[in-house]
Amino acid sequence: MAKPYLSIVIPVYNEADNLENLYTRLINVLDNYEKSYEIILVNDGSRDNSEAILNELHKRRPDQIRVIHFNGNFGQHMAITAGFERARGEIIVTLDADLQNPPEEIPNLVKAIEAGHDYVGSIRKKRQDSWFRRYASRLNNSIRSRITGIVMTDQGCMLRAYKRHIIEAVVSSKESSIYIPALAYSYASNPTEIEVEHSSRAAGESKYNLYKLLRLNFDLMTGFSLVPLQMFTLFGIIVSMLSTLFVVYLFIRRLLIGPEAEGMFTLFAIVYFLFGVTLMGLGIVGEYIGRIYKDVRQRPFFIVRDTLEKIND
Ligand code: UDP
Ligand code: MG
């Protein structure tokens, strides 16, 4: 198959109950759209029946459907990266496999790229997630935009379109903890956002628990900014200055009034507070060092076990 105009990249992790539906809706939209396309489905080490279904989908449309099987679970963003490495389209679109992002929106994203934008983000019109997820995301969004200076109204929505050169820049970034929408945004010169529909998960359950979400957000903060470290330094400076004043005050008080032994528990409170803050600071430093450690080891970010594709160019 010759180089397609569109590449659709979809990470798949235990989505057996969604794949058939996803296939039908995608094919339906793209066949009517009259642009050449390829769909790259990256199986991120699924342990359900996804693998067999993906193989079957490839057989149905060997010219359009490419399947990459990972050797284990390396995470959504690594799965997308693997898809990007292999994507051949002029325009690359990402979406989730669980049908929360309607494939019917793809033409709208492409239209915005064709209008001259190199990055099209999306804002979920009526987000269909639990209130906890919605509020946690809102908080994350505002902290992240303040710390990293990256303007994304809705960072969590993966339905996005990119021009080829942006994806090439993302692929050439050799970082192990990446957050694709933000990284791509930082390479874009003319980004925009459009509103898209959002549905609740068609089948199965979210692959992100609170812990995984937290990890992802740390990736975002540490990957794009040194502000957490700098805030910490600033806090340290302020505390030392206040402590110096306090020491001077105690010294003068001691000379004028004499020794004091009261207020022990207040002292405990203050010490515990500062101890907590110190541990947090160590943690922040650790987050950065851990990522540096991961990157200096230079282990592969993911391992591809098998690919099913028919390419001849
Ligand atoms: N996903 C993946 N690897 C993972 C977790 C998720 O490839 O380790 C895929 C998943 O199959 C889906 C997309 O990433 O296509 C988004 O995951 P999910 O719907 O669970 O996230 P949520 O919508 O709850 O944020
Ligand atoms: Mg989802």
Please characterize this protein's 3D structure.
With 313 residues, the protein is of the alpha/beta class. The protein has two domains: 6-209 and 300-308, Spore Coat Polysaccharide Biosynthesis Protein SpsA, Chain A (Alpha-Beta Complex); 227-297. It has ten helices and eight strands. It has helices at residues 16-33, 50-60, 76-86, 106-114, 131-148, 164-172, 180-187, 210-224, 227-257, 264-297; strands spanning 6-12, 37-43, 65-70, 91-94, 119-124, 160-163, 191-196, 304-308. The protein is elongated.
**Shape estimate:** elongated
Number of domains: 2
Q: Under the CATH scheme, which class of the largest domain?
A: Alpha Beta
Annotation, overall tally of beta strands? 8
- Can you name the CATH architecture of the largest domain? Alpha-Beta Complex
In whole angstroms, the N-to-C terminal distance is 7 Å
Low-confidence stretches: none
Features:
elongated, binds magnesium ion, binds uridine-5'-diphosphate, single chain, Spore Coat Polysaccharide Biosynthesis Protein SpsA, Chain A, alpha/beta, 313 residues, 2 domains
